[in-house]
Amino acid sequence: MVKVNGKDLDIAGKTVREFLDEEEYPLSRIVVELNGEILPKAQYDRKFLDGDVVEVVSFVGGG
Amino acid sequence: MYFDNDECKRYARNFALPEIGVRGQRKLKEAWVLVIGAGGLGSTAVMYLAAAGVGVITIVDYDYVEESNFNRQVIHTQVGVNKAKSAEYFVNNLNPHVSVLGVDEKVTPQNILGHIDGFNFIVDCTSGFDSKFLINDACVLYKKPYCHGGATGTQGEIMTYVPGSPCLRCLMREIPFDAPSNEEVGILGPVSGMIGCMQAMEAIKYITGAGELLTGRLVKYDALETRFQTIRFGRDKDCPACGDKPSIKLSIDRYRPKK
Ligand SMILES: [Zn+2]
User: Fold this and answer.
1) B99-127, pLDDT tens digit by residue?
2) Which residue in B has a C-alpha nearest to residue A25's C-alpha?
3) Residue A6 in domain
4) Residue B179: which of A29, A31, A33 has the nearest Cβ?
5) Is residue B1 over pLDDT 90?
6) Can you give the residue range of the structural domain that contains A17?
7) CA distance B12 to A35
8) Which of B9, B60, B76, B256 could form a disulfide with B65 if both were Cys (CB 3.0 to 4.6 A apart)?
9) Which residues have CB atoms below 5 A from the ion given as ligand 1?
10) Residue A39 CA: distances (Å) to CA of A19, A49, A62, B171
11) What is the ipTM of this complex?
12) pLDDT tens digit sequence for B14-51
């Protein structure tokens, strides 16, 4: 299991990019935090491991 | 600095706080805060800054009040009035000890330096990433502390920049021009209210020196889940705004989508 934004998801083995694409996250305005550290975009081909804790944050620009 | 009888009563609860006290209140009274944008974020931020006793508050907004603003822009009561002027009117009624000025103008790459000059702290309450990045870049370039805020749908976010700390571009290099607006996806009043309130708190913390600023931290607020996430981040030495070799220039083209 991988904990994404507080929820357990069965996505171990998937790459970060695959997951983001499936969930239709807008790549231009998100930040991925993996186990407490920001994951550089160049490392989005990394596969999720069992027990990873992930926060995906989308920026909002409204006022 | 002298507090009159009315101020002493009005700020009694601030005086009682060990982190603020008379000392902190004096700093608030001496402070000049610029709020850019008087929409959902700005409405709330301005109200609380004024109530707290910030001495000088300037509000800049070129927009005019419409009916569809009333679900969240709680400072406005009349359609068709310039939002900065409307906020100025409200503050004059709320706290006569504040010198407030509403400026009906659009902040642009050409005039932003004139706007931010002389202020101790800037609160970014604009909508749209083009203006948010413009404020970030100008504040980094001219070493001005500011607080970034955003609210769309049921999500909000906030972070604070002071010279030397990481900036918005450390997290997001390019302006995401494809981001949906509140017109498109909607926005609930308490969401922008929460963030606007926290922005006022950041200004108060910066001015008085109380507590810990939200520097190097982006706080995300999910209103439906009542969930706060804190993303910690460092200064990116390759950041085009605050990095070791900054390349940002305040040119108009930079804040428009590329054709
Ligand atoms: Zn930066």
Assistant:
1) 999 999 999 999 999 999 999 999 999 99
2) B179
3) yes
4) A29
5) no
6) 2-58
7) 45
8) B76
9) B 167, 169-170, 239, 241-242
10) 14, 14, 25, 11
11) 0.88
12) 999 999 999 999 999 999 999 999 999 999 999 999 99
pLDDT for B257 equals: 87
The pLDDT of A33-57, averaged and rounded, is 94
- Domain B31-255: top CATH class: alpha beta
**Which amino acid, residue B134?**
L
Compute the Cα dihedral for B208, B189, B144, B107 and give only its sign: negative
Mean pLDDT (whole number) for B187-216:
98
Q: Is position A63 within any domain?
A: no
Mean pLDDT of B185-197: 97
Instruction: Enumerate residues 216 to 235 of chain B having a beta carbon within 8 A of any beta carbon in chain A.
Output: 218, 220, 225, 227, 229, 231-233
Contact B171 A31 (CB under 8 A): yes
A-side interface with B, Cβ within 8 Å?
A: 5-6, 26, 28-29, 31, 33, 36, 38, 55, 57-63
Q: Which residues contact B23 (CB under 8 A, 6 or more apart)?
A: B208
Number of domains making up chain A:
1
- The answer to whether position A48 is within a domain reads yes
Helix crossing, B40-52 with B83-94: angle to 10°?
Answer: 30
Residue B259 has pLDDT above 70, yes or no: no
Beta-carbon separation of B155 and A58 below 8 A: yes
Cross-chain Cβ contact A29/B176 below 8 Å: yes
Rg of chain A's alpha carbons, rounded to an integer?
Answer: 11
